[in-house]
Write a structure and sequence with these properties.
Layout (H helix, E strand, L loop, with lengths): L1 E12 L10 E17 L5 E5 L4 E4 L8 H10 L16 E7 L9 H16 L6 H16 L5 H8 L3 E3 L14 E7 L6 H14 L1 H23 L6 H14 L5 H12 L4 E5 L6 E6 L4 H10 L4 E7 L1
Parallel strand pairs: 3-5
Antiparallel strand pairs: 1-2, 2-5, 2-6, 3-4, 7-9, 7-10, 8-9
Bound molecules: (R)-mevalonate (MEV).
């Protein structure tokens, strides 16, 4: 039996602008993860068990664009591992997939499943893949399900390190000068990322110069935040989060529920807060002094958050 595990992720700064080649910052969230087990099967076919989504099926019975089937099909496609010596036909396998990452919440659940599944298959079948190859495969899957993704999710989840991400550029991992604490709070509303990315594109198409300016300003926020994190000046991130959130509101990708949690976090003593990811649902984040984390988490739950995670970025 072979196992592989991948963390969730959270975007600290720069979502949406990152689709337009501005920098964004994202970090892994190790408290939540997708886990995959692959073992040889006595029966023919590739059997998939994913209890979280009530899936118990043989690969060939699933639609080709099914999120899990598409990873396995890509893995076995003629252009991937088979080229490196994998034989004809698919091996009989049993695959079990579990995940503690909430789906459609901006925490990278799709990318984490793609990465853990690809790595478990590669290890089990003895077809080594580089991190770059794993990330590229996961990116292909993101494109099937999310339209025009920047690639930030698959990159952070694959490398499981803090990433300063610029679309199309080589991975840039940054150091955290001093650990800091964030509270992540879930609205419980699925984030329709494909739609929000599409709607921002519409705004941009109608008035490119206005939105290019906004994306530039967000890019500067991400750049400044990286420098602050590296220098250990994490308290500076609060104000940057507030500024970034205001731009996301202007882009119309926040929502009353997200705004309510952001306000509740600030009122409870957070140093700053913003929505995170595609928006209109999903999660928000708040920067806190470690000793205030539980109080802020409690306040955002009272303001309607369905779940909270306190995590240290280090
Ligand atoms: C989604 O996690 C982040 C967005 O910037 C989209 C993307 O980067 O692909 C909204």
């Amino acid at each position: 039996m072979t196992t592989s595990s991948s963390p969730g992720k959270i975007i600290l700064f720069g979502e949406h602008a990152v689709v337009y080649a501005r920098p964004a910052l994202a970090v892994p969230v190790t408290q939540i993860h997708a886990d995959v087990e692959v073992r040889d099967s006595p029966r023919a076919g590739i059997w998939i068990e994913a209890p979280n989504i009530d899936l118990h099926a043989e690969l060939s019975t699933l639609p080709a664009d099914h999120p899990i089937a598409s990873v396995i099909n890509k893995f076995f496609s003629p252009l991937s591992p088979r080229e490196r010596g994998w034989g004809e036909g698919l091996p009989p396998l049993e695959i079990t997939i579990t995940s503690t990452i909430p789906v459609a919440s901006g925490l990278g659940s799709g990318a984490a499943v793609s990465v853990a599944l690809t790595r478990a298959l590669a290890l089990h079948l003895n077809c080594p893949m580089t991190d770059d190859e794993v990330s590229s495969l996961a990116y292909e899957i993101e494109k099937i399900h999310h339209g025009t993704p920047s690639g930030i999710d698959n990159t952070v989840v694959t490398y499981a390190k803090p990433v300063y991400f610029v679309k199309g550029q080589p991975i840039d991992i940054f150091k955290v000068g001093h650990p800091f604490t964030i509270v992540i709070a879930d609205t419980g509303i699925p984030a329709p990322t494909k739609e929000s990315v599409r709607d921002v594109r519409r705004l941009w198409m109608y008035d490119r110069s206005r939105w290019e300016t906004v994306f530039d300003k967000i890019g500067i926020i991400s750049f400044t935040a990286r420098r602050a994190i590296e220098a250990g000046r994490w308290e500076m991130l609060g104000e940057l989060m507030d500024e970034n959130h205001a731009f996301l509101q202007e882009m119309n990708v926040s929502s009353p529920e997200l705004d309510r949690l952001v306000q509740a976090a600030r009122d409870a003593g957070a140093l700053g807060a913003k929505m995170s990811g595609g928006g209109r649902g999903g999660n928000m984040i708040a920067l806190v002094n470690a000793d205030k984390a539980e109080a802020v988490a409690r306040s955002v739950r009272e303001a309607g958050a369905k779940n909270t995670i306190v995590t240290q970025v280090s």
